[in-house]
User: Fold these one by one.
Assistant:
Number 1:
Amino acid sequence: MNKFISAAILFLVMAFPLAAQQKAAPDTIPAVIEIGLEGNKASLSASLRPLRQIAGAPEAFYTYFWEFGDGTFSFSPQPVHHFKDTGDYEIRLYATNNYDDGKAPKSKPRKIKVKKTMYASADNSPGFFPGQSDFLAMKANRMPKPGEEMVTVVGYRHPGGSGTVSGSLLLFYNEKQFAQKNFEMAGARAYHGERKSVFDSVLAFAPSEDLYIPLAGPSANGAFLPAGERTAAWRAAMAERNAAVAAVLAEKKSLFREQHVWRVENLGAGEEKFLFLSLETTPEMIKDTNAVVTVSSLFIPDDPLMPMGQYDLEMQIVASHDPNRMQLKNRRMNYRFVRKSKELSYKVQFQNTGKGPASKVSIGVAVPAMLNGQTLEITDYSPKCVMCDSAYERQSCLDTIVRQDSIFFVFNNIYLKGVRQEGVEDQDSTKGFIKYRIRFSGELKKLPFTSQASIVFDKNEPVITNRSKGRWMPGISPGLIMGYGIGSGKNKMPFGLPAGSLGFSVSTYSPYRPYLQAEIYLGLQRKNETLTSFSRDQRDTTIGTGKYIVQGRENFEITSRTTMDVVPLHVRYNITSWLGVGAGAMVSVVVGEKKQQKKVVTAMPQPPMGTVEKFERLAGTVNERFTAADGALFADINLGMVRVGPSLGVRLLQYVKDSQQCVFFYGIWRF
């Protein structure tokens, strides 16, 4: 029996972790890359874990990013790739689980060996560059999610012309506007001889100016210039270009913490090449899914006559992968500056995740109460089409409908491919977006505001995006205070806030909610003279060379105080823009005190001359520091421009230690 019980216990101990492992298995099953290789032709597919549907979301699905190990890539679910040369290659797959509540499947690189070439290679990067003359473009396989790896593809090219181009390719990330680092560089894969360099050497690679200065030739307007004038013109142009490059580099360095530099050599006309960067999102990455982070790239040709290339990849932080989303640029705004421009920039991104094309996409956007929909200005959109008010019948067009609390953008008569539509390999052909600007209406209140979009593809159920929340940075508002205090109580020289007090305050800039305010006052020196004794006598005395009869003797104590008053806790609330109230605690400290004894003698000169003279003498001076302290509770009221600007106030203080009161009348100007 004992052996049976022991065996049962051992079985349960071993089975429990196995059961737990099986329970967690759907989220940890790695991706398996499957390859069918025929010569240099590779047919790729993957076995992925079952999707775990998010309740209420559209149907979950995978998107794919394949890296073939030869500098090319594909977003197709099952790509067919033709390698140009024989050799060993590492194929990587990054699958993204959309509308799935688990982690993205892990994938290890799989090595293959191409022994012979049988098929011609094809272009693997159609439509990567947005414009024909663009030097640079960037794409990410997924939006950044805390604790997850993502891949950024940096594409660079020689747009045309003749000859070759060499230069520096720079990458900037981890913006200084965020307190923490959002990315760590996990790896960079270069396939075209790019080599790492250093930031400070970028300008040093520019070749000698003599290589680019002809002896003589026509100017820009066709006039023939001698060699000397031509040389001077080119040198001036080069100096201007180098100054522009230095300014751009300084600006980027002021915005980003991290930068990497690669040297690019002999890029031929029409050539397109790609650099693959694995970025690990850090555990402490900002969790705010309204935040937008930027990864920026620059291409600086050595040839001073060629323009720089620049590309900023803006990505929204996500809690789960959802291709339909709304973002507010600069969602952490400075109220002091925004209230002057009173303008916001929004972007709504959408993707047809269905099995067929969509001919109509309707986007309804909720407009926060403090925004004015009538100020709408569309800045960019895709798919590109005309506005409906100028379109002919059945033409692809974009229509806008503005209501008091909402805006509707409607793409009519378009052809937006579906992610799961047969034959669709270009993921960009399934996506669209609308960018627009909108202004605040009337009084701009410093309160959070949210917006959200509802997206309808044809007659399907609406897809609700994330809430895009706008927040204001607290901002600092310094203040200058001048006041007059009247004290009463047992002390003849009460604590704190004397007449002629000068103070300074620090608070939140232009608040609409309860806020804290700190204050400090530097009081002017105050004097108090107290009679300690008085006596009368008629004795004769000699003062100097004269003779007198003493009429009386008085002894005084003179106290001079310098105080400092600090308000460490002060809670305020602005009821309206012209009325504010507050309450808090103040600490009053005597930082310096001087005591002197003054003796006054009243005497009649002899013989009498009808007048009485007084003689004073100071003695026994004592200087002390921090001789006393007291605390007070107070309440006050402000009238005027209580958020920003001048206002008047009155404050009633009740001291704790000496049970004295003080009324403080003051004026304050908050900047």
Number 2:
Amino acid sequence: MAIQEPGNPSGEGGGSLPEFATHDVFNQAPDYGGFNLAATDPVLIAAQGEALDETAKGDFLTHGAVCGTREILDLGRLANEHKPALITHDKHGRRADRVDFHPAYHALMRRSVEAGLHCAVLEDEKPWAQTLRAGKYFLTSQVETGHCCPITMTNAAGAVLKRQPDRFGDWLSKLKTRDYDARLLPLDQKPGVTIGMGMTEKQGGTDLRAITSSAEAGNDGTHRITGHKWFFSAPMCDAFLVLAKTSAGPTCFLVPRVLPDGRLNGLHFQRLKNKLGNHSNASSEVEFHRATGLLVGEEGRGIATILEMVVPTRIDCALGSAAQMRASLSRAVHHCRHREVFGAKLIGQPLMTRVLADMALDVAAATALAFRLVRAADRMATNERDAAYVRLMTPTIKYWICKSTPPLTYEAMECLGGNGYVEDFDMARIYRDAPVNAIWEGSGNVMALDVLRALQKSPEALEVVLSEFTEALGSGGKSSCDVIAAAARAAVEDPANGRILTEQLALTGAAAALKQIVPQGICDAFIESRLAGQWRATYGMLSPRHNARALVDWLYPEG
């Protein structure tokens, strides 16, 4: 048997195997990245509407360019590959209660703080502050979602603390800076701070009234908290909003990590949660040993006080999940544009094209719907219609977007085949992270029940929302709104129908939001397949009358 020489595939004359047999790699997509995540997302740009004027657009595109670099994207990999580590005691045996992070995590935190993603809720005087911040948050979430948890909590905590500026002025001034400082130091030595939260306990879960942690008033205007929290998010934050019981009932407290004299507060971390995903973000279990807490809000009304955090937190859940959908499908489209199979690019294979187009509709709808909610939140203080939209649609939108993310992310992973399933690529990480926002700040049933509560407390909100849907969708929207009205009556009578109502509200709201910002053909494809189509369990069911390739190319222009 003749041995082939390099450059002599016939094998004539003997020799060694050709170099390409062992060294050449071809028909693999180049690494994802190296383009502007903002400039290549027409739905995101359109969804920000008038908020994105020429001045803001330049800043936004710069942020998108940075987020799209392979170097920044790689920080997301490193921050998750090197998990945080809990150090309960130092080498001398003293309690340390410290969590060590990889430098990539701190780099991501620093960039997000410098971009102001942690404090926009305190910048109400700036027009469209929430919408502009949401655009950057959406881009940042495509890089890495774990570090976004403390960013979200810090932003939401500002909504609570700003109600008492006289009491928490020092904290608010540090929250508004763009300085990230990971050191454990007293407040007066920090240029900037982050804030976490601790609500749920082993026995209570979602039922916050079942907490057992207690707070005893001291003689210095503070309280001493004893008890535990089962999920204590981002334990290296500088302070935490915590629920504990007084004689008046569940009460909210701000619990610093470090006391003014430099001593660690009585927070004893037991372990870090071994989570499915979200690995870069440390979630912990903690015990309070007479930890010092500052009263926030009215004693006995801690749950009502904490509710100030709910809207901004849930909005970020929806934004983050929509961004994960975009991140996963962008990688699938990128792979399919470069991979060749059966003599043609994968993206040109009709069945694959239709699957990608079908997924792209949900990503576009999730983006449009999330930003409709953000714009309403930006105007709710001065516009009652937007306030009504926020009341009813916040749990609705969180429900649908966050629950849609895991199946879409899986389908996108499948587009990459085996490459999508191995850790060398980042699809596996995105897939593991996909379920968390559907669980955080209220799972699906909690969201459906909150929709029903909104209907009961503010029945006029449904009329306002349906009026918007009808106006946006025209005669075709009226039938959908009639169905929603009937579903609302059924759900109020029988809460078991809550999910049916919530999903119908979300889908119709998504169609109305899309109608304002995308070409008619894309909106028609969503309406036909989601509002008027048959029951769907997987992607790829789009009617052939829609131009799938044109749809993909418009929603995912090449970088």
Number 3:
Amino acid sequence: MTVSDSQPSADRTGGQILVDCLAANGVERIFCIPGESYLAVLDAFVDADIPVTVGRQEGGVAMMAEAWGKMTGRPGIAFVTRGPGATNAAAGVHVAQQDSTPMVLFVGQIARDMRGRDAFQEVDYRQMFGGIAKWVAEIDSADRIPEMVARAFSVAVAGRPGPVVLALPEDMLVEGAGVAPVPAAAVEDAVPSAVAMARFEALLADAERPIAIVGGSRWNEAACETLADIAKAWDLPVATAFRAQHLIDNLDPHYAGDVGIGINPALKARIEAADLVVLLGDRLSEMASQSYTLLSVPVPHQRLVHVHPGAEEIGRVYQPTLGIAAAPGAFLEAWSDLRRPNALAWAGSAEAAHADYLAWSTPTQSPGAVDMGELMAAIEARLPEDAIVVNGAGNFAAWVHRFHRYRRFGGELAPTSGSMGYGLPAAVSAKLRHPERVVLCVAGDGDLQMTMQELGTAMQEKAAVVLVVVDNGQYGTIRMHQEREYPGRISATALTNPDFAVLGDAYGAFTAVVERSEEFAPAFEDALKENRLSLIHVKVDPEAITPATTLSAIRQAAFARQGG
């Protein structure tokens, strides 16, 4: 729909106008928890062609919308009610902010004539979301809905993408107006200047130990294909930033591994020794930068080319040798036009880096009757190349990120914000978006219980997610930190868990319990054959805290360090 061919309707309510605007902006699905504060919008959805997914808690709903934005590059849409609905949804808004994901959260609001009285569930959303959203506003008049919704879509995807929050006073939504829906304007990505690319070409020509680190958002399949072509043409080692491993085929001979938590020491040394780092699309924040030590701050000891779609991110932490404000695809297209030298000083370094990665990503043994290394090997042997692997946060994810080899763009959904509870709602969103693909969610016991109620959403939507619950009876990451800092003094990290398989049965899932390594492969094969929600409850030894060490080893090292 365009502005020229849309005609205003004099008798449309604010709720109807809003839903018309969503349709005009190509919204394919919305996620919500219903509330009396936006009943007029819920009513308008009855006559719309936009599917509505009803969640169980606003945090899960916001994470579903965020995952949709990650997968599509277009704003994921969530609706929640005022007050507690909005505060619950803040968890997903924070994920979108830290992960640079386009998202629009619509929040029901009190009537306009009740403002400032501390009315029922009244919140000032500009104050509440001001630090984590790109733009927060309240639509005061129904005739401004098209303007403000179009702006929300534009802001969410521009530069560094992120979340937008729009509050909807309930009396405004029943107000009539004669305005037409307006789609957000299409904006072409900025193209790197010829001067900038000439400087980049000179830096490449002078380099002896270059490496690229790719991450962030604003990627698409075409950009990833161009990245692979450039890596091959320039024989360049390419690493991926934290939870961005799907941007290049992990079996590409130029892939060097991921720059995240528990980094391969060989990759860390390679980046530290590099004389040119091309940081493409990512901010290299705390986790990827190893607490801001991989590149020195503010001026890296390596020459740094920082390419980011948000100009405000360039120079925010690192002062680069060359900064280029451009989306990944636009920069890579410009790079493709550069002249490659006949001889490359770094020839063979990608092969060595990839060999280091293959050795690092080969599963290792872990203690207990269930060996997490064997579990990951079983998954790798049976998972299709186009599978989508989803996880939340916790030490269990270390096995996924280290030993799963991502093969396709869009094959990874995980929060760089480290938000627990992300996995299940994101997996439901992924299965609704890609019903033809296997969606595997690996969740920890504490992680899952943050949003476990979204099993109901999966059941209602018939989302055939394969859920593997790694149960070690503790908040493992925090227990690990406790043993390192306060050895033997354990507080608030033990978990008494439900029988997850029985819970899965209650939601109509295929279930299995794994207490020995050899039980996992057949259970996983059965789950892949089922065309319904599946839950595999894996009971692991609490000692198996990371692929590299155990709780006892961490405790003993801490005591030795303290002289005890």
Number 4:
Amino acid sequence: MCGISAYIGFREAYPIVINGLKRLEYRGYDSTGIMIFDGEEMQLSKTKGKVSDLELITDNDEVRKKGNIGMGHTRWATHGVPNDVNSHPHFSQSGDLVIVHNGIIENYDTIKKELINRGYIFKSDTDTEVLVSLIEEVKKRENCKLGQAVQLALNTVIGAYAITVFDRTKPDEIVVARLGSPIAIGVGEDNKEFFIASDASPFIEYTKNAIYLEDEEMAIIKIGKKVKVHKIHDDSKVDPIIQKLQMNLEQIEKGGYDHFMLKEIHEQPKAITDTFRGRLLADKNMIKMSSIDDNLDRFLNANRIIIIACGTSWHAGLVAEYLIEDMARIPVEVEYASEFRYRNPIITDKDIVIAISQSGETADTLAAIKLAKSKGAFVYGVCNVVGSSIARETHSGAYTHAGPEIGVASTKAFTTQITVLTLIALKLGKANNSLTDDAFNNYLHKMQLIPKQVQELLKIDEHVKSIAAVYKDATNCLYLGRGFNFPVALEGALKLKEISYIHAEGYPAAEMKHGPIALIDENMPTFVIATKKGHYEKVVSNIQEIKARSGKIIAIVTKGDTQVREIADHVIEIPETEEALTPLLTTIPFQLLSYHIAVMLGKNVDQPRNLAKSVTVE
């Protein structure tokens, strides 16, 4: 959940590390800190708050900024409240070692008590200070080098971590290790400089070469030498693979938009097109996905498909359940990864598990994948980040090609996940003859129109903004949808909760009368997806039930609708398409609505309180 940024080389470290922290702030922003080694002393600055608060401390202090080695951290608190003391980096008791850490050390309390018995004194409430003290104790006790001390210490801890450790007595070396939390190493020309970060965004302008550590691997990084990687538990050597980065600097800048979320909402036509590219071949009446083609028999002969995910990705999985069962007639179950991993599920080698995650680093989803694999299931990943842990841990999979998503509230990740899952459903339906040729070809041609339809839909921004102004002071909201659009109702409610902090709930429209209707009054706005196809007349009846109780209705309707327009307080029109494809359109107004309400309420839409983009801890 936290962000790590570090540098060792010939450049000034401060601007590299601080700019890296800014790009990683989506991972955590309750406190932050930086250490710069000036050749003799480690200059430390840290504070509760955001990276901008840290800059206020350091910008006018040239002494604190000089040096060619540095590490920084932006925090999402786990152990210890957000404050200056608990902020990273943390020093060992002697002051020789310094560490930044993403993850949780579960047995830290036991280790801490033992170290206290040995005379250690702790300044913070964090598990991280315990870890760096343990490394120092091992180094002293075993009279070994830093790398070996880190390895021995990590063999005694339980939990998840990505760590970067520096010893001021060895100023040409940094040690990095990971288990469950991501870490990337940027490799400069001729190994003259190295960049360490939670993802590659902090160093893309300096190098396109990156090493992604696997779980239970550590790296010893020395200026002028190749990175040495070996396993933490058995010390076996690993030949690191240097990957070429695909992202560019422009992708992670705001590009003139006020917020990353708004930029990413408007990037959806391109993101969906990029997800189609090379896969949706409407002129040839085919879908080309080698990851499905190579495993087609597994899918067609599966007893069932189990989809595992968290948050927004779980909502995309629910859409996929409707899609796959409708188009391919294969049974589908959708599970929260956080529950699946703990409930001793019944899984066989006849099952296929589809794991969905934007970051590819979601801790619960990764643990669920490992459980499914241990029981013989074939695991297929759908994620956005190339080279991420889920991409490496699954048997096969597909990237969404959404590009970097910085805003904490997912937008383009959701629509591109649905895009990939729709392609899979169509491909399977065609392969097992559940879809006729005419139906299949019609879907392909309608899907090809979706990016342009989304582009057209984004033009309603001012109309949605005017609706947002009416309902921004609501304290509770209800979101209703049926069929393919029930998950979109859930996603719409989640978006509003995430960034505006207004309580909202999503329901299947027909379930309203089984409880939620008790909430309806003149102060309760209800957002209803009432597109023309599917269960239209049933939804109209639900709307009338709400109006009979003085409820306010904001309806998403198909362009040209007149029936709902007559009874709703506000309508938002979407272009006409097949019912199964409507989630790619109906979600856009909800994204814009949540965004504008949050902005009007003065909320930080890109960094909502208590949330982080990538949940890499339990």
